Amino acid sequence: MELHNLKPAKGSTHKKKIIGRGEGSGHGGTATRGHKGAQARAGYSRKIGFEGGQMPIQRRLPKFGFKNINRVEYLGINVKELQVFAEKNQLSVIDLDVLKKYGMVSKTQLVKILGNGDISIKLDVTANAFSKSAIEKIEKAGGKVTTI
């Protein structure tokens, strides 16, 4: 194989549709625009959401709901996941830097520790927020909870 032999795989390339160049293009006459009407004229552009005169969907459906701009989004991590994570990596202290280092959270995420599951090892946990049950379970196991 040499440079002058190279060519794309069969069927991987397509010819561009040549429009408005007369009969020889195979799309002559009306250039695939049909006969007369707004769509056949130069400068025509259909409005976004136009459905041929039928009432558009954005006007048929009612408005509802809102987006709370003050919402704070947390990534939830359960205490059972913390237990597995700490045992796997032989950790006794878990904070945001450790979670970021091991790839459990990204650098901008806020973390909330949730109380699903059981924890049996002593852990010092630092996070942005904790549920009541998570605090109870961590402290019951002899650990310490610190909220940032």
From TrEMBL:
GO biological process: translation
GO CC, alphabetical: cytosolic large ribosomal subunit
Bias-annotated ranges (Gly residues): 21-31
Domain of life: Bacteria
Database matches in Pfam families: Ribosomal_L27A (PF00828)
Subunit structure as annotated in this protein's UniProt entry: Part of the 50S ribosomal subunit.
Family annotation (NCBIfam families): rplO_bact
Name assigned to this protein: Large ribosomal subunit protein uL15
Organism field: Candidatus Merdivivens pullistercoris
